[in-house]
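ugh ok so i messed up the first submission bc i forgot one of the chains. this is the corrected input, ALL of the components this time, i swear. 220 residues overall. if the numbers dont match what u have on ur side tell me asap before i send this to the collaborators (the ones from the other lab, u know who)
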Amino acid sequence: MATDNTDVLQGTLDMLILKALSLEPMHGWGISQRIQQISRDVLQINQGSLYPALHRLERRAWIEADWGTSENNRRAKYYQLTSLGKKQLAEERASWQRFTLAVERVLQTT
Amino acid sequence: MATDNTDVLQGTLDMLILKALSLEPMHGWGISQRIQQISRDVLQINQGSLYPALHRLERRAWIEADWGTSENNRRAKYYQLTSLGKKQLAEERASWQRFTLAVERVLQTT
DNA sequence: CCACCTCCTGTCGTATGTCTACAGGAGAAT
DNA sequence: ATTCTCCTGTAGACATACGACAGGAGGTGG
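and heres the new structure output, hopefully the right one now
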């Protein structure tokens, strides 16, 4: 029951997905793998968070999907950033930087 | 309606409060002022978040309260960290560092 | 003395988003 | 033929932050 839980902080998931997709179009499962790998297993995205997030982003027109075939010959939905999505990613990054900087300031206070 | 909203990310508020109290015992309203000031107005804690958070932390025995009188001669509840709270703060800091590092890794990917 | 402002604590309802658990189809491997 | 992996998805529970509202009590100004 120790807190070795590595939950993704609320609001961060969208940014991570957008960032992953800014590298290249990918399918949902691939996105989660990619993020987990890059973060060295610190960030793990559950399916129950992943797909709702993708649908949310799509509803907001930040990403769009096309059905295709994965490297393993499976049916997969390939997502890509829209231009709105790129703008959104930039905003979220900026806001993330401002936020972490502010938190850091508080944490550094003596 | 632009996103100039500076919400505190879920899970961060507790750490910020604990950190503030690690400086010295303070009352709730003072905590929010302090955090806002140190963060240069980036972090603003609403009353609707502040007091529930304080009660939550108290319930978990990370902080404890005594009624007292404020600098302005008002009734105020002074909170202070318990030893459990100090431990908790350390854990949350560590987990925060791991998390931001991981996110940074993802954001830096080219 | 009364009205008003500031300080300080608190609750209620709502929105959002993450988690766990569950479900299923379809290609590949044994 | 069965099982594994890949891939997508939903349902329900849960935590927590937010906006709006409420109120008591001291200080200040008319």
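quick check: Residues 5, 7-11, 13, 46, 48-49, 52-53, 56, 72-75 of chain A lie near DNA strand C (CB under 10 Å from a C1'). that seems consistent at least. The radius of gyration of chain A is 15 Å.
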